Amino acid sequence: MPQHPPAEPELTTAALRAMELAGDEARALYHSFLGTEHLVIGVARQAEEDGRHTALDPAPHLLRREAVRIIPPGRDPLEQPPIPTRRVRAVLRTARAEATRCGHPHVGVHHLVLGLTSVGGGVAHEMLRRLDVDATGVRERAFLLLTEDRAA
Which residues have CB under 8 Å from 66's CB, separation 6+? Predict the structure, then answer.
Protein backbone atom coordinates (compact mmCIF):
# COMPACT_ATOMS: atom_id res chain seq x y z
CA MET A 1 0.00 0.00 0.00
CA PRO A 2 1.51 3.40 -0.95
CA GLN A 3 2.58 5.69 1.85
CA HIS A 4 1.32 9.25 1.60
CA PRO A 5 3.48 11.96 3.10
CA PRO A 6 1.81 13.80 5.95
CA ALA A 7 -0.05 16.91 4.88
CA GLU A 8 1.63 20.23 5.58
CA PRO A 9 -0.02 22.13 8.41
CA GLU A 10 -2.48 24.74 7.17
CA LEU A 11 -2.62 28.26 8.54
CA THR A 12 -5.12 29.02 11.31
CA THR A 13 -7.74 31.71 10.85
CA ALA A 14 -5.57 34.07 12.92
CA ALA A 15 -2.46 33.36 10.81
CA LEU A 16 -4.48 33.86 7.61
CA ARG A 17 -5.74 37.15 9.02
CA ALA A 18 -2.15 38.21 9.77
CA MET A 19 -1.25 37.44 6.15
CA GLU A 20 -4.27 39.44 4.94
CA LEU A 21 -3.26 42.40 7.13
CA ALA A 22 0.29 42.12 5.78
CA GLY A 23 -1.13 42.41 2.27
CA ASP A 24 -3.12 45.46 3.38
CA GLU A 25 0.10 47.03 4.67
CA ALA A 26 1.88 46.38 1.37
CA ARG A 27 -1.01 47.90 -0.61
CA ALA A 28 -1.23 50.92 1.72
CA LEU A 29 2.46 51.57 1.09
CA TYR A 30 2.05 51.01 -2.67
CA HIS A 31 4.53 48.14 -2.56
CA SER A 32 4.15 45.53 -5.29
CA PHE A 33 5.74 42.92 -3.01
CA LEU A 34 4.78 41.44 0.32
CA GLY A 35 7.94 41.42 2.43
CA THR A 36 8.85 40.48 5.96
CA GLU A 37 8.32 44.13 6.92
CA HIS A 38 4.65 43.82 5.98
CA LEU A 39 4.31 40.41 7.61
CA VAL A 40 5.70 41.52 10.97
CA ILE A 41 3.23 44.44 10.98
CA GLY A 42 0.41 42.08 9.97
CA VAL A 43 1.24 39.76 12.87
CA ALA A 44 1.26 42.67 15.32
CA ARG A 45 -2.02 44.05 13.93
CA GLN A 46 -3.71 40.65 14.11
CA ALA A 47 -2.70 40.23 17.76
CA GLU A 48 -3.94 43.74 18.52
CA GLU A 49 -7.26 43.01 16.75
CA ASP A 50 -7.74 39.82 18.74
CA GLY A 51 -6.63 41.42 21.99
CA ARG A 52 -4.19 38.53 22.43
CA HIS A 53 -0.58 38.48 23.45
CA THR A 54 2.05 37.87 20.87
CA ALA A 55 5.75 37.34 21.32
CA LEU A 56 6.35 40.64 19.49
CA ASP A 57 6.36 43.71 21.72
CA PRO A 58 6.26 46.69 19.35
CA ALA A 59 2.89 48.14 18.44
CA PRO A 60 1.93 48.12 14.75
CA HIS A 61 2.37 51.89 14.41
CA LEU A 62 5.99 51.66 15.64
CA LEU A 63 6.72 48.82 13.24
CA ARG A 64 5.12 50.74 10.37
CA ARG A 65 7.21 53.81 11.17
CA GLU A 66 10.40 51.75 10.92
CA ALA A 67 9.25 50.03 7.73
CA VAL A 68 8.70 53.40 6.04
CA ARG A 69 12.09 54.65 7.22
CA ILE A 70 13.76 51.67 5.56
CA ILE A 71 11.62 51.33 2.42
CA PRO A 72 9.69 54.45 1.43
CA PRO A 73 6.16 54.10 0.06
CA GLY A 74 5.72 53.68 -3.66
CA ARG A 75 4.01 56.29 -5.79
CA ASP A 76 1.22 54.45 -7.53
CA PRO A 77 -1.67 52.33 -6.24
CA LEU A 78 -1.42 48.65 -7.12
CA GLU A 79 -3.65 46.90 -9.58
CA GLN A 80 -2.38 43.42 -8.67
CA PRO A 81 -2.08 41.86 -5.23
CA PRO A 82 1.42 42.14 -3.74
CA ILE A 83 3.66 39.16 -4.47
CA PRO A 84 5.33 37.44 -1.49
CA THR A 85 9.09 37.76 -1.54
CA ARG A 86 11.45 34.80 -1.40
CA ARG A 87 12.13 35.61 2.25
CA VAL A 88 8.39 35.60 3.14
CA ARG A 89 8.04 32.22 1.44
CA ALA A 90 10.99 31.03 3.57
CA VAL A 91 9.27 32.38 6.70
CA LEU A 92 6.13 30.40 5.82
CA ARG A 93 8.16 27.23 5.18
CA THR A 94 9.94 27.69 8.50
CA ALA A 95 6.67 28.35 10.33
CA ARG A 96 5.22 25.12 8.88
CA ALA A 97 8.36 23.23 9.89
CA GLU A 98 8.13 24.64 13.44
CA ALA A 99 4.48 23.60 13.69
CA THR A 100 5.32 20.10 12.48
CA ARG A 101 8.29 19.86 14.83
CA CYS A 102 6.09 20.88 17.75
CA GLY A 103 3.42 18.36 16.73
CA HIS A 104 0.88 21.08 15.99
CA PRO A 105 -1.67 20.38 13.24
CA HIS A 106 -1.92 24.06 12.22
CA VAL A 107 0.38 27.04 11.69
CA GLY A 108 -0.60 29.82 14.07
CA VAL A 109 0.57 33.37 14.58
CA HIS A 110 3.25 32.23 17.05
CA HIS A 111 4.67 29.92 14.38
CA LEU A 112 4.81 32.90 12.02
CA VAL A 113 6.77 34.78 14.69
CA LEU A 114 9.17 31.85 14.94
CA GLY A 115 9.55 31.92 11.17
CA LEU A 116 10.16 35.67 11.15
CA THR A 117 12.86 35.38 13.81
CA SER A 118 14.48 32.30 12.25
CA VAL A 119 14.90 33.43 8.66
CA GLY A 120 17.99 35.58 8.60
CA GLY A 121 18.26 39.11 7.34
CA GLY A 122 15.45 41.04 5.80
CA VAL A 123 13.72 44.26 6.58
CA ALA A 124 11.75 42.83 9.53
CA HIS A 125 15.02 41.94 11.27
CA GLU A 126 16.29 45.47 10.73
CA MET A 127 13.01 46.95 12.00
CA LEU A 128 13.15 44.85 15.17
CA ARG A 129 16.83 45.69 15.68
CA ARG A 130 16.10 49.41 15.40
CA LEU A 131 13.34 49.00 17.99
CA ASP A 132 15.74 47.14 20.33
CA VAL A 133 13.74 43.93 20.14
CA ASP A 134 15.73 40.86 21.23
CA ALA A 135 15.05 38.11 18.66
CA THR A 136 16.10 35.40 21.13
CA GLY A 137 13.63 36.73 23.69
CA VAL A 138 10.91 36.86 21.04
CA ARG A 139 11.54 33.20 20.14
CA GLU A 140 11.45 32.17 23.81
CA ARG A 141 8.14 34.01 24.35
CA ALA A 142 6.71 32.46 21.17
CA PHE A 143 7.53 28.96 22.42
CA LEU A 144 6.07 29.80 25.84
CA LEU A 145 2.86 31.12 24.26
CA LEU A 146 2.60 28.02 22.07
CA THR A 147 2.88 25.87 25.19
CA GLU A 148 0.23 27.94 26.99
CA ASP A 149 -2.12 27.78 23.98
CA ARG A 150 -1.69 24.02 23.82
CA ALA A 151 -2.47 23.63 27.53
CA ALA A 152 -5.63 25.76 27.30
Answer: 126, 127, 130, 131
* Dist. CA 109–CA 40, nearest whole Å: 10
CATH code for the domain defined by 10-151? 1.10.1780.10
Specify whether the backbone of 121 is left (phi greater than 0), alpha (psi in -120 to 50) or beta.
left
Report d(CA 39, CA 18) in Å as an integer.
7
Domain boundaries, the chain: 10-151
Beta bridge partners of 11: 107
Q: Tell me the three state secondary structure of residue 34.
A: strand
pLDDT digits (tens, 9 = 90+) for 81-122: 999 999 999 999 999 999 999 899 999 999 999 999 999 889
With a CB cutoff of 8 Å and minimum separation 6, the contacts of 128 are 40, 56, 58, 135, 138
Task: Tell me what pLDDT residue 14 has.
Answer: 94
The amino acid sitting at 131 is L
- pLDDT range class, residue 3, cuts 50, 70, 90: low
Point out which residues pair with 107 in neighbouring strands.
Answer: 11
Query: What three-state secondary structure class fits 135?
Result: helix
